[in-house]
Design a protein that fits this description.
The structure holds 2 protein chains of 2 kinds. The relative contact order of chain A is 0.13. Chain A has a single domain, classed as Thiamin diphosphate (ThDP)-binding fold, Pyr/PP domains (Rossmann fold, 3-Layer(aba) Sandwich), CATH 3.40.50. In chain A, helix 2 crosses helix 8 and helix 4 packs parallel to helix 6. By secondary structure, chain A is an alpha/beta fold. In chain A, strand 5, helix 8 and strand 6 form a beta-alpha-beta unit. Chain A contains 12 helices and 8 strands. An 8-stranded mixed β-sheet of chain A has the order 2-1-3-4-6-5-7-8, sandwiched between helices. Chain B is of the alpha/beta class. In chain B, strands 2, 3, 4, 5, 6, 7, 8 and 13 form an 8-stranded mixed β-sheet that branches. A 5-stranded mixed β-sheet of chain B has the order 10-12-11-14-15, sandwiched between helices. Chain B has a two-stranded antiparallel ribbon with strand order 1-9. In chain B, helix 1 packs parallel to helix 2. The longest helix of chain B is centred in the middle third of the chain and has 18 residues. Chain B is globular and about 70 Å long. Classes of the chains: A alpha/beta, B alpha/beta. At the A-B interface, helix 5 of A face helix 2 of B.
């Protein structure tokens, strides 16, 4: 097991725009994700946050804040509020500012999907980031359409675990024909950083989907959140790839593909998941991974 | 339900009591979306509804929640949703649809500080006028306010009963304090609870005129799937349910919508009073503030002030008759609220100079304390 990650020089020296004292839980993935993202984007960034964990994590002044302007907007409006900020900046000729919408999975997959789709269809010049912890964690672990099949949440309790597989968000975004779609994981910071740097230089709607561990919601030890998240990529449940101008490229190839059961069994939320479901997840994961590899070859 | 003490006594949270009330009233469908401080209602129903053969769906937002409970109600299920301020705002368009299409349903709004995201974990009473006028267009609506866990149980049943009887959406206003307070409640045996179901048409399908007036102003309601084919629309419609532009039909329809509620005023306009008979000054309060007011009345009496409390259980239609009685009897009334005076304006509106109306408002996220109310009572 790889224990330490050698971060690139550039990334270590990048600006740290997240001040200490965040109100996130121990082992929170999204706190780290914001730090990495802003390192990639730099100071000339405006962050648009809808209702989500980050509206709390950002803390109360002066304990913590981001060293960039932040607007915290209603739940369903991250993409469109960001579009508006972009338009305002354009009017004033401030073209070097990156506008980043930063929403959770509920605000992206569910309530925010309509406005995100609208913005993507108009190819608004925004970077939309979904930090996906796979449920409504801020309100107390209710299922979202990003919650994986077989997971426990407070609204998919024991006896009625989530029946439906996770929504294919990348597929939806790709169908809009936007210039950049990528997945990223806090367990692979170098890959994460490179994608944000690349996204910054692209014009039009860019969508980055981050897998972000949530120890209380996933029922894992907070010390193991990165380890568990890394397994999601190693078992191909959450492959890391990007689609730039229609060309698919897998950016992190697991050296050895592990069975999904190792990833699933490492988390309390899948404790009641049956063997049948687990086999189904294995099959579906392999299918998706193979079709991703095919797409990579065919678009080369 | 937790910590059962004796046969009918339970130690419940306000949100849990809403669930118990809904299930007792026969709710079989719930659609909701996570929001503080109402999420517990969804969470518990996600477990309980399947056990009684009902359906729980977690929706993608509150527009969807409201849309789904309307659909379920048309298909014959007693349905409910629960939310808080931001979600209640998203429900407003469909709430108006439920009014015009006369679809029975219950909407629980556990109020928190606003506007917008506001204060998600603090109590407030800022949504009172939104509950009354949040959806566009002129319309009647029933709005109830709970102040205790016991109330939450009983008023949820009442809300379903009014919804079914009058074919109207009913809004139950709770707040963060009532929702998260745990106290002992007594749940009466099922057979002692009066449950009302919508009246189904007794005529054969070919004779059914879905929106025809009658003495109550409430037409019988057929469930989709029962063989009664009819049209439901958010456009103003004639007695057969089809859109109309004829002024005579429009006016008759709109007047019936109002009349059906007006005819039920005696039953719908609920209040509770406490030491009001000989009161010279009165508190008019509702929701969690009524709890503080009760204590304040006792403390004021200890100090020689003849105080009383009129608690508004129904906020809309505004219980004008009861309020007028108190205004005639007292030299001053105090209306404490966790807003800038939404109900005190209603009180002033019916006052017509009879008596002095004072306000006491708190907007800092805290609850109005008995001391605050008592101090005001001693001053007037």
């Amino acid at each position: 097991m790889q224990r330490f990650i050698n971060l690139s020089e550039e990334m270590r020296k990048g600006p740290d725009l997240v001040t200490p004292g965040l109100l996130s839980c121990q082992g929170c993935g999204t706190a780290l994700a914001m730090k990495l993202a802003l390192k990639g984007l730099g100071e000339r960034t405006v962050v648009v946050i809808p209702a989500c964990c980050w509206s709390i994590i950002i803390g109360t002044y002066p304990h913590s804040t981001l060293n960039v302007p932040v607007v915290h907007v209603p739940f369903e409006t991250a993409a469109v509020a960001a579009s508006g900020v972009r338009a305002g900046l354009d009017v004033r000729g401030e073209e070097d500012v990156t506008v980043m919408a930063w929403a959770g999975d509920g605000g992206t997959f569910d309530i925010g999907l309509q406005s995100l789709s609208g913005a993507a269809e108009r190819n608004e010049d925004i970077l939309y980031v979904c930090y996906d912890n796979e449920a409504y964690m801020n309100t107390g672990i209710q299922r979202s359409s990003a919650t994986p099949v077989g997971a426990w949440t407070t609204t998919t309790p024991g006896g009625s675990l989530k029946q439906e597989p996770k929504k294919d968000m990348e597929g939806i975004m790709l169908a809009h024909g936007i210039p950049y779609v990528a997945t990223a994981s806090v367990a692979y910071p170098d890959d994460f950083f490179e994608k944000f740097k690349k996204a910054k230089g692209i014009k039009g709607t860019r969508f980055i989907h981050i897998l972000s561990p949530c120890p209380p919601g996933w029922r894992i030890d907070s010390a193991k959140s990165i380890q568990v998240t890394r397994m999601a990529t190693q078992c191909c449940i959450f492959p890391l790839y990007e689609v730039e101008a229609g060309i698919t490229r897998v950016t992190v190839r697991p050296e050895e593909v592990i069975p999904v059961s190792r990833y699933l069994r490492s988390q309390g939320r899948f404790r009641e998941m049956g063997e049948d479901t687990m086999e189904l997840v294995q099959v579906l994961t392999e299918q998706r991974w193979n079709s991703l590899l095919e797409r990579e070859t065919s678009t080369k | 339900m937790s910590k059962k003490k004796s046969a009918n006594r339970y130690f419940l949270q306000g949100n849990e009591a809403v669930v118990e009330g809904a299930l007792t009233a026969g709710c079989t469908f719930f659609a909701g979306y996570p929001i503080t401080p109402a999420s517990e209602i969804s969470e518990i129903l996600s477990e309980r509804l399947p056990q009684v053969g009902g359906t729980f769906i977690q929706m993608e937002d509150e527009i969807a929640s409201m849309g789904a409970i309307i659909g379920a109600s048309l298909a014959g299920a007693k349905s409910m949703t629960a939310t808080s301020g931001p979600g209640f705002s998203l429900m407003q368009e469909n709430l108006g649809f439920a009014c015009i299409a006369e679809v029975p349903c219950v909407i629980v709004n556990v109020m928190r500080g606003g506007p917008s995201t506001g204060l998600p974990t603090n109590p407030a009473q800022g949504d009172v006028m939104q509950a009354r006028w949040g959806t566009h267009g002129d319309h009647p609506i029933v709005v109830l306010a709970t102040s205790t866990v016991q109330d939450s149980f009983e008023l949820t049943i009442k809300a379903f009963n009014f919804a079914e009887k009058y074919r109207t959406p009913v809004v139950l206003l709770s707040d963060e304090v009532v929702a998260h307070t745990r106290e002992t409640v007594e749940l009466p045996p099922r057979e002692e609870i009066h449950i009302i179901d919508r009246i189904a048409p007794s005529m054969p399908p070919e004779w059914y005129i879905p929106f025809e007036d009658n003495s109550r102003g409430v037409p019988p309601m057929a469930a989709f799937g029962d063989g009664y084919r009819y049209h439901v629309t958010g456009l103003v419609h004639d007695v057969r349910g089809f859109p109309t532009q004829r002024p005579d039909e429009i006016e008759a329809f709109m007047k019936r919508l109002f009349r059906k509620i007006t005819q039920g005023f005696n039953e719908i306009q609920m209040t509770k009073d406490f030491m009001i008979d000989d009161a010279k000054v009165a508190v008019i309060a509702y929701g969690s503030v009524a709890r503080s007011a009760k204590r304040a009345v006792l403390d004021a009496r200890d100090r020689g002030v003849k105080a009383g409390l009129l608690q508004l259980v129904t906020l809309f239609p505004f219980p004008r008759m009861k309020v007028e009685e108190v205004l005639r009897q007292c030299r001053a009334v105090l209306v404490p609220e966790l807003n800038m005076g939404q109900i005190s304006r209603e009180v002033s509106r019916v006052n017509q100079g009879k008596c002095q109306v004072r306000k006491l408002n708190r907007l800092d996220g805290g609850l109005i304390t008995p001391e605050q109310i008592m101090y005001e009572l001693l001053k007037i």
